[in-house]
Amino acid sequence: MYRLTVRITDEMDRRISAANEQYGLGPQPIVHEAINAYADALGVPEILPIPKPEDRPHRPAPPSEGRRSRSPKGVRKPEPPKIGTRITPLTDTRLTALCELTGDGPQQIVNTALNIWMNRKGIRSSGSDASQVSA
Question: Where does the record place the region Disordered (predicted)?
């Protein structure tokens, strides 16, 4: 399993909590399902050769908001929430294929995949009531 950490919006954080309550899933299966459903929709093959760990592309972490900020010294902007999960080598390979196909980075791919997955499940957030799930 490979570690995957991405920044998400506060709204997505609430939607993931609502999905946990509705379906009893934790973040890991939600992210896994979302990435694979997005890969399926864009025609990424379900079976791909999995590179050896040393041959995996290196994805440097994006700089934190605090380092890019021009805030006065010692004042940092609050960072958006992050979601950290583990994904299978195959899901990681499909994520890499999605990045190559779309030209987006893993951060954007995962956020897009989560939005699509949540929309298909009817999970939305409206203000502080994240438990609204449409029928």
Answer: 47-88
